[in-house]
Write a structure and sequence with these properties.
Length: 336
């Protein structure tokens, strides 16, 4: 009888130790910050670095989103404009920031060009993408309302007759820089590409008749288009924009130029997944908020589009692979 009791006690002790060990393992897994959506963050203001100057579409997108994100996250979302060098000054600031979730990058396709152009020695691998929030198909070439150019065919004819005779304002290393290089390749022409800076500087240059064409977002210059100060020559989308039906596409005019602009958030690469995911969940709520949708449509006619960390990263990598096909064009342009 004593032997039976001893055996039973041993078995009970073993079962208890196993249960304790399993409980300890489960507790450890639950405590890992990267798996928890209840991480104690944010505890202070979040700095959103925008690698562009104030007054452009990137800046406006960031500020509208930031207003709604402040409500979702319960802490101020502060927009910090760090323009220059095609956006590399701003992206580098985030790359080198502490991975504590308090500094996040808000940028667009231009980020992918920086490495191709040799402006940066880092790329997507140096960040942890949190979300894509906006897609914009209203990127276009615009000229003055008094310009002699009424279509891209007029522009091409002038350039065929006299290469470099049409000037185009951009910021070297920016998204519009890629667009003009793509157009040159598609049309077999060479434009006089002038580096004037960001969106506000381009608009000012066109208003002052200092430049022939600019690449810009149509919603950003809506008022100038309505008043006749500006004229849209071609939009780089598959179809005409419903908001700007009088602006034809490049493809309608015979030029294979098509670009969509996406806006994304990314943290320094060592930022805990829990923070990245919590921020992403907040972005998703904002994107699905009817009030935000109405405001961004009124401001830029952009399309709220949410992609989480994995899907957004894959999407950006695919676009990066596509842009690499322009590498020979970019390198040859730099040599001229």
């Amino acid at each position: 009888m004593k032997k039976i009791l001893i055996v039973l006690l041993v078995l009970l002790m073993a079962a208890g130790m196993a249960a304790f060990a399993n409980g300890a393992k489960e507790g450890t897994a639950a405590a890992q910050p990267s798996q928890s959506s209840d991480v104690a963050w944010p505890t202070k203001a979040i700095q959103v670095v925008v690698p562009a100057g104030a007054g452009g579409d990137t800046d406006l997108n960031s500020r509208i989103l930031g207003k709604y994100l402040t409500k979702e996250l319960g802490q101020p979302v502060v927009i910090v404009n760090v323009g220059g060098a095609g956006g590399t000054l701003g992206s580098r600031k985030v790359k080198d920031a502490a991975p504590d979730g308090n500094t996040v990058l808000f940028f667009h396709n231009g980020f992918l060009l920086n490495k191709l152009l040799g402006l940066a020695n880092y790329g997507l691998e140096s960040f942890k993408v949190s979300a894509i929030a906006v897609m914009d198909n209203n990127n276009a070439f615009v000229t003055s309302g008094t310009s002699k150019y009424n279509s891209m065919k007029d522009v091409v004819a002038a350039l065929k007759a006299k290469p470099m005779s049409v000037s185009f304002a951009t910021e070297v290393g920016s998204f519009t820089h890629l667009q003009v290089l793509s157009f040159e390749k598609a049309a077999g022409v060479k434009m006089n590409i002038v580096d004037v800076g960001g969106a506000a500087a381009k608009t000012a240059a066109l208003l002052g008749d200092q430049i022939d064409l600019i690449g810009t977002q149509l919603g950003l210059v809506r008022d100038y288009l309505k008043k006749g100060d500006f004229r849209g020559l071609a939009v780089a989308s598959a179809e005409r924009s419903p908001a700007f039906p009088n602006v034809p596409t490049f493809k309608e005019q015979g030029y294979d130029v098509e670009f969509s602009k996406f806006y994304f958030y990314a943290f320094p690469k060592d930022t805990p997944d829990a923070i990245v995911n919590k921020f992403s969940a907040a972005v998703e709520k904002v994107v699905n908020d009817p009030a935000y949708q109405k405001e961004i449509d009124a401001a830029l006619n952009a399309t709220p589009t949410y992609m989480g960390p994995a899907k957004a990263t894959a999407y950006i990598q695919n676009v990066d692979n596509e842009y690499n096909s322009f590498k020979d064009v970019i390198l040859s342009a730099q040599k001229k």
